[in-house]
Amino acid sequence: MQHPDRYQGRRVVVLGLARSGVAVAELLHRRGADVVVNDKKDRSLCPEADPLSALGISVVCGHHPDDLIDEHVALVVKNPGIPYSIPPIRRALELGIEVVTEVEVASAFAHSPIIGITGSNGKTTTTTLVHLMLKQDGQGAVIAGNIGRALTEAALEAQPNEWLVTELSSFQLKGTVDFRPNIACLLNLYETHLDYHGTMDDYAASKAKLFANQTADDTAVFNWDSPFCRSLEPTMAARRFPFSSKEALGQGVYIQNGIIYIANGDGGAEELMRVADIAVKGGHNAENAIAAAAVALSAGASPESIRAVLRTFRGVEHRLEFVLEKDGVAYYNDSKATNPTATAKSIESFDGDGIVLVCGGLDRGSDYMELLPVFESKVKAVVAIGETRE
Fold first, then answer.
1. Do 228 and 192 meet the contact criterion of CB atoms below 8 Å apart?
2. Which helix (H) or strand (E) covers residue 343, if one does?
3. What single string gives the DSSP state of each residue in 63-114?
4. Up-side HSE of residue 69: CA atoms within 13 Å toward CB?
5. Which of the residue ranges 25-29, 36-40, 68-72, 335-339 would you say has the lowest mean pLDDT?
6. C-alpha–C-alpha distance, residues 252 and 247, integer Å
């Protein structure tokens, strides 16, 4: 993508009035672009529309006009969740107009180093851990992206010595071209979001974009235990610093015999801490912990700062979040588990076989058969809801 300043006096269409759409529309307008914002929702459901209109930005709500996209449009910036199948995006691609997400625009303005974290599961927890570890270490860090603030806002306000710790979805990454994080972390890849991507190949290719523009000056953190993540290693130009919960590594962070180790590539390994001392329980949280440790170490954080956070961090909202105990029954909110693998890992975090699972919702095209083993061993009842209840 051209630098956003090159769009001065040229028409840019922003699709979607969510947080990221508003931020990028304001930025491009200030830089002199002729910005048109379009949202299919009725204007009464778009409280962001009036403030943008007051700035002189054209806002069209309620439908996608037939003439929204023509040969005079220089760039389309789409909300990550908007599918590529809608008419305005199809028209833009037919005309050869570049279609990007807000992350691509934001990165062109960033004066701060960027940490990008993605994966099917564990993004929010890992991003939060990295942010806390850097703050504990006395480093400047701003959390943004798919969590916290829009990356555009954060990129403009962050100081050059502050890390932009960014959670990234496959939807955001699919719409990137030149985006280059200084530290990129890929946690895992499981079947999910096929309702959006259509195929696993498209989903995987979107995640792989995280490493596409890195150079030897950057660092790639990835899950050594994931066949897909490991398959990307030969294509990585950056320094590799993987993590593993299953085998010892010559370089990276790994778990062996219940101990987390740091291997710096010199043939030795430093003990970081016991897995049992991590405050949040579960094998998936141990994986998130070592991934976050690998990222924080790559950013210069000390082992002491990493230990302090892992011993005290109690988790994020909606991820095995304890709600209350009533009449001897403990209730947990795990609504961040939006695919079968995440659900299975959460169930396996509990001892015993007395779980009542409330599950279902939007059909993302996933195969639920992998849940059967944990149903048989751990779950005594299922309350099925939403599109997927049958």
1. no
2. helix 340-348
3. S--TTSS-TTEEEEEE-TTS-TTSHHHHHHHHTT-EEEEHHHHHHHH--S-E
4. 23
5. 335-339
6. 11
Which class for 354: exposed (0-12), middle (13-18), buried (19 or more C-beta within 10 A)?
exposed
In this prediction the pTM is: 0.83
Alpha carbons 120 and 207: distance in angstroms, whole number: 9
Q: What is the mean pLDDT of the chain?
A: 92
Contact 105, 27 (CB under 8 A): yes
- Yes or no: say if 104 and 177 are a contact pair by the CB < 8 Å rule: yes
Tokens matching residue 4: 């956003």
> What number is the average pLDDT over the span 142-163?
91
> 277 with 310: CB under 8 angstroms?
yes
| Alpha carbons 316 and 124: distance in angstroms, whole number | 8
**Rounded-to-integer distance, Cα 71 and Cα 95, Å:** 7
Q: How many whole angstroms separate alpha carbon 163 and alpha carbon 117?
A: 13
Q: Output the CA–CA distances (angstroms, integers) from residue 140 to 133, 264, 299, 300, in the order listed.
A: 11, 24, 11, 12
Based on the number of CB atoms within 10 Å of its own CB, is 326 exposed (0-12), middle (13-18) or buried (19 or more)? exposed
Could you write out the DSSP letters of every residue in 145-208? ESSSB-HHHHHHHS-TTEEEEEE--HHHHHT-SS---SEEEE----S--HHHHSSHHHHHHHHH
Residue 22: what pLDDT?
A: 93
What is the average per-residue pLDDT within 257-271?
93
User: Angle at CA 154, nearest 5°, toward 151 and 158?
Assistant: 140
Cα separation, 206 vs 225, in Å, equals 20
- The token duo for 357 is 């699972």
Q: What is the rounded distance in angstroms from the CA atom of residue 98 to the CA atom of residue 120?
A: 26
